[in-house]
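hey so i finally got around to running the thing on that chain from the lab meeting. sorry it took forever, my laptop kept dying and i had to restart like 3 times. anyway pasting the input first so we r on the same page abt which one it is
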Amino acid sequence: MRKISFLTLLTGLLMILIFYSIFLRDLTVIIWPMPRDLTCHLHNCHKRGTCLIGKCFCRPGYDGIDCETAWNQSIIDICATSNDDKCFIHPLYGIGEVSVERWKKAVNQEGNFWVIHVQHEDRWNDHLAGFNNYKMLPNDLGSMVELGCGPFTQTLSILRVKGKHVNIRKLTLWDPNAKHYMSQVKHCSYKNGTLVGFDYIPTIIVSLPSEEMHSYINEFDTILMINVLEHVQNAYQILQNIYNSLRPNGILIFGERWWDQLYTSENYKTDTLHPIRIKYYAWKWFTDHFEKLYDARNHNSYLKYGHNGSYFIGRKKNLH
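ok and heres what got predicted. didnt touch it at all, straight out
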């Protein structure tokens, strides 16, 4: 009798679901969720967060598939009229977005740093070691963009690797301080509009925040970004821009640290240069949408500075 009763109940539930799916169309969203919009063109997260590859990364105080639920009204009330740091600290994601005012302080400090500190490169040896001299990187990089290229770029270090013959058909160097570096930094690698020693590579210099790259769709074959997210205003938006602008099967060269163990309110307030502090969760969500070609986690090039992170090379998955 118990078996018959269970089957009868199960049959009844299935009939109810079928009835609702036919006559109450709105409920089909709950019963059979629509496929995720990986481009995030259909999600604005109620303007309470940022969509990253089909998932809303909500600001503190909000939750839900589209940030529709307010779960901490006290934080929401405070942040409605304040840009206090606590308004951007998420317990799961870390700090993936900050106020424009905080970001501008970081950009200005970064720009001034490279004028005062006369150098020819930015930790090239660390990153070459982290990526194992780019042995797993394909040689044909096609149309390539380096985001947050700084005054010296990491592209130049790749082109100079001995025994590796890299082909870049067209290069875009993108940094909010690019024009400043060209005019003010003595050893800027692209001072004359092309990479020093590689002036045969057609090069475009863009002096804008990487958040402004949202209009580029399937534009690049290769995207390079190393230790850049920690300096930006909205890391989720930039990661989404990377995903959208990279062609199917395109190559991502991505070096970044995560801050699960390094965040304290005291050291954050005094660290103007690094406003963004994403946690491992956000990094993994993004990189899981790429086929891994190389992934050196917690390499000595990070650990020796007391940091955690990864040197990652991946191929964009062709998902439908």
